[in-house]
Amino acid sequence: MNKLKLTAESVKRLPLAARDADGKVVQVVYRDTELSGFGVRVGEQSKSYFVQKRVGARVIRVTLGTHGQVTTDQARKEAGIRLGALTAGRDLNAEKRSDREAQRAAKAARALPRSTPSRRCASGT
User: What is the pLDDT of residue 82?
Assistant: First the structure.
């Protein structure tokens, strides 16, 4: 397991991931030595900050943002907040999924045509 103190400079110096002999991209994970559960995942094109913790029987990994869009200090602060929520037993990914489904349902409901009251024909017509 790769461990180092994650700073803006240390993350900037990390090389992007390469492909293996089969042509598959092998992501590399680096964990922070200062904040347990905080790390950076290095792919072929980007570096993403994440926080990871065991909640019950599952390991939950939450992406915080990509290097360049989020600074290392911002990611570290957000990691502390998210770790607190995970420690409290919250599954942040399930919450995010639930919010997304609720938004989709609301959008679908808005897209349905509104029913208009029907006019009854007078008898005999």
Answer: 93
Strand partners, 32: 4
Residue 6 lies in a domain: yes
Q: Closest by alpha carbon to 96, among 107, 84, 112, 85? A: 85
Q: Per-residue pLDDT tens for 85-95?
A: 888 888 777 77
CA–CA dist 70, 15 (Å, integer): 18
Q: How far apart are CA 83 and CA 54, in angstroms?
A: 10
Whether 15 is covered by a domain: the verdict is yes
Domain with residue 7: its CATH number is 3.30.160.390
